Amino acid sequence: MQTTRPEHPARAHGSAAVIAEISAGLLAPTAHTSPKFLYDSLGSRLFEAICELPEYYPTRTEAAIFAAHGAAMAQDIGTGVSLIDLGAGNCAKAASLFPLLQPAQYVPVDISRDFLTESVTRLQQRFPHIEMTPLGLDFSGGFALPDSVRSRRRLFFYPGSSIGNFSPEQAIAFLHGLRANAGDDGGLLIGVDLVKDSAVLDAAYDDAIGVTAAFNLNMLRHVNHLLGADFNVRDWQHHAFFNPHEKRIEMHLEARSAVTVRWQNHERHFASGERIHTEDSYKYTRQSFVSLLEQAGFATNRVWTDENNWFAVIYARV
Ligand code: AVJ
């Protein structure tokens, strides 16, 4: 890897920490970026569009589980909690539970801060009696809860199988952190995508009209903005597949030809066909995820699934 100074360096908009994190991943022997960089404002909108796709079954399947079993969940959980929504996005999933769960406080957390602010402003008008405390931050490495949250019974809400972005080892550490922050009377309501026929999985992450491809490619625009890099999006193509050994979907961006990308005082050459690994989405069996929760210190679990056993919603308690 060479280091040169570009003649017209573009301005970098990311913080020093973000620039260092992305640079290290792009300069690694196998280039990689964290999936959190998929979510700028356009990325969050493209993800919303993914959730409408016929191939992308997780959102629909999870919503059906909430529709069928939401009352039972609310019964188990109880009303008046502080609902901490991790990766809240447009807040639609939590909002659909408000009538049953009747939380006293709603704490949506999302890295895509502007998108979150817009969502919460709209939601507060629909539910004026629920105290809303949005947190625009990256929670993947843990985060501190404001005092107003700590004073109440806490329910962490982590739907959509976003836990799949962590490796199983990272997931245990992350869930362990939630368990510690939940307190003795708190809990976790989590959505988990289950292992299934690989054709179903492959189609869900490589849809016919290319929305997931656009979602993946948009990461390069976002990284250009954060680093002041000169990725040409047209040089890259979306590649996603189920890896049965690792039990995960892998998303990559593959160089269509040999390209050199420059930012700040760095450059990285990519051979034709070389890839940037942009996302993992781990799939679990019901048993393997319950065992993961137990390793993270959650003792009691209640599991709801759909009729195909494609997706599970689990309420875990200390
Ligand atoms: C938001 C992480 C749950 O893994 O299914 C969708 C992201 N990536 N299509 C998933 C995603 C490509 C999604 N999660």
Automatic annotation (TrEMBL):
Residues 20-317 form the Histidine-specific methyltransferase SAM-dependent domain. GO terms for molecular function: L-histidine N(alpha)-methyltransferase activity. Keywords: Methyltransferase, Transferase. Pfam families: Methyltransf_33. Gene3D superfamilies: Vaccinia Virus protein VP39. It is an enzyme of class 2 (transferase). Its EC number is 2.1.1.44. It comes from the Bacteria. Coiled coil: none annotated. GO terms for biological process: methylation. NCBIfam families: egtD_ergothio. This is L-histidine N(Alpha)-methyltransferase. It comes from Duganella zoogloeoides. The gene is egtD.
